[in-house]
Amino acid sequence: xxxxxxxxxxxxxxxxxxxxxxxxxxxxxxxxxxxxxxxxxxxxxxxxxxxxxxxxxxxxxxxxxxxxxxxxxxxxxxxxxxxxxxxxxxxxxxxxxxxxxxxxxxxxxxxxxxxxxxxxxxxxxxxxxxxxxxxxxxxxxxxxxxxxxxxxxxxxxxxxxxxxxxxxxxxxxxxxxxxxxxxxxxxxxxxxxxxxxxxxxxxxxxxxxxxxxxxxxxxxxxxxxxxxxxxxxxxxxxxxxxxxxxxxxxxxxxxxxxxxxxxxxxxxxxxxxxxxxxxxxxxxxxxxxxxxxxxxxxxxxxxxxxxxxxxxxxxxxxxxxxxxxxxxxxxxxxxxxxxxxxxxxxxxxxxxxxxxxxxxxxxxxxxxxxxxxxxxxxxxxxxxxxxxxxxxxxxxxxx
Length: 399
Prior knowledge:
The protein has 10 helices and 21 strands.
């Protein structure tokens, strides 16, 4: 853990050392804001370290596509921007539709094209040529995004935090926040467990599943539920062929991506949703039957993966809003900001949302994107709705 002294005060305090908190701290420090980043364990020790880390542009709203496009562009130049690597790999992205879903497929395809995403429309034969291990026989059409990829989630958060430190931020690991300090209806700083305070008129809560508890100390209630998620790592058989692309299979309910040179990461798009009472798991391991079920589902699309060797996996907790888009807003007492409820989208959107939130915190300039992500949208009955919904997507969460 870092031995950096705890400052008595700061222009802004960011609570949470995952990809989002680290991104906010980086963008604040880049603007010359005196910022302190607090993490109770170590950087990326929470949900970020369990992320599938897929970086894609395949969204059903213009808002999602635009945030994802700008974030992908940042990942592509991450080392140039921060001077640290994020381990980003361009793999390409594939997802198909059966005949009954072609109208919805075309609407989504047109939305992506209109937003400048370089998608291609393939038939089953062309998809098979591009991805020889893929069984595309039930697909009437396939979308291919050649720019999508994945990154190293831990390296990404560490890169943002290290760059923030280089630009003058105090990055404190192993420092737990006990609550918020309030004075005359506004934020006055944070109270640390074990004693001590940091005075600040601006506090950003980006502590993932712990954000709700901190927000409640300021009288703020947020519509978040906690949902169980699971992934497995499978060693591809020797005859699989070239490393695959990211693949979303709406019909067998899995997403997958390569993990290094020989493994594949696979997770559920949706099973029966398991809503949790608590924001953290006592055990983040994955049972053998779950790994075998994921392998079986993946083999429906990549038949040779029936012979894949399980290499482990993990479970995690999604913080999910009613419309499955995050809340990134100023809430409650003056000076309090939250970035929460990412519903599986946080990693891929962290570069751009970190930038927009830092701009809001530093200059009181709220972008149109953050207006759309306001906490009040649910009370106003203005949730974000898909503009080009894919039928099999309804009620599902996609990382």
